[in-house]
Amino acid sequence: MQPVGYRYFTEHGLVGEPGLYYDYVVGANGVFIRAENRFISATICVGDAHIRGLKPIDTRVVLKCGKIPWRIYHLAISTLTADALHEHYLAVVWQDGSYHLKMPPQESGECWVKFEPLPDRVMEFHSHCLMRAFFSMTDYNDEQSLAIYAVVGKLDQLIPETEVRVGVYGYYEKLNLNEVFGDV
Fold first, then answer.
1. What pTM does this model have?
2. Burial zone of 40 (CB within 10 Å; 0-12 exposed, 13-18 middle, 19+ buried)
3. Burial 104-116 (b: 16+ CB within 10 A, else e)
4. Could you give the residue range(s) of every CATH 3.40.140.10 domain in the chain?
5. What is the CATH number of domain 68-182?
6. What is the pLDDT of residues 30-75, one digit of tens each?
């Protein structure tokens, strides 16, 4: 099996050999990357196109263990707001049959944070202190696995800003909070 698969989405289904890590899939509406791990299954567009003779592909992101509870989102925001003048990193991990919010040992400053990623992480949060929430070039370089990523900014406001996306090995698709969080 090859590390990367190259496939086509025809009226008879997927044609081509799947890859070990992920597949590029060509459909009527473009080129997509499709990957999954124990926690996430994702198919996102990496290039729009109009290709006759193939079936269209839908963008799809599935949290295999269900949506993350809203209480974890609110706990993350509270934790990041508690020290609004330093960047911090938090991870949502799947352990013992449920989601947990973890803060690994880290060093941080106003515009940086250093940490070791945690195993079994499904989602990563990091803060941008008083700046707006946006994904920086550092974020694009660092966020290279299959995971959900969030950046939280404007921590000095009553309701901080949050941007969320799924990352699929260097490709990204913006998500809204309701696609990731839900009542459990």
1. 0.94
2. buried
3. eeeebeeeeeebe
4. 68-182
5. 3.40.140.10
6. 999 999 999 999 999 999 999 999 999 999 999 999 999 999 999 9
